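Exercise 3.2. Students should predict the tertiary structure of the chain below and write it as structure tokens, then compare their answer with the key that follows.

Predict this chain's 3D structure.
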Amino acid sequence: MNPEVAPIPSIRLDVWLWAARFFKTRSLAKQAVDTGKVDVEGQRPKSSRALRIGDALRVQRGEEVFELHVLGLSDTRGAAPVAQALYLESEASKKAREEVRLRRAAERTGYRAPEHKPDKRARRLIRALGDLDAL
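Answer key:
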């Protein structure tokens, strides 16, 4: 091997997603990649795909969608500020996530949780409403 030519540093995709704190465990990261929740450069990768600096990722976690560019590689999970230094999120992605968050908050504004569990009479009324087809 030629000592002047260094190999391009790379890391497994699922390890990077775990180290960048997108998923709590590496197995959750692997499952997300396997189920198509992660795209690399617009393609659906395998969890063992070699990730390099400069790659573009699209990560879907629940209702949130992150569009990222890889700035650094790490195989160890560190503090949140260290993990956030591994990627750069696009402004459009930040804006879209904020809009989704505000929409979800607006949907919740009219809802009030009940103060206590329903009593026997209320449970019968609830059950009767569920049996409308039986009437």
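Discussion points: The first helix runs from residue 13 to 19. Helices lie at 13-19, 26-34, 80-84, 91-108, 120-130.
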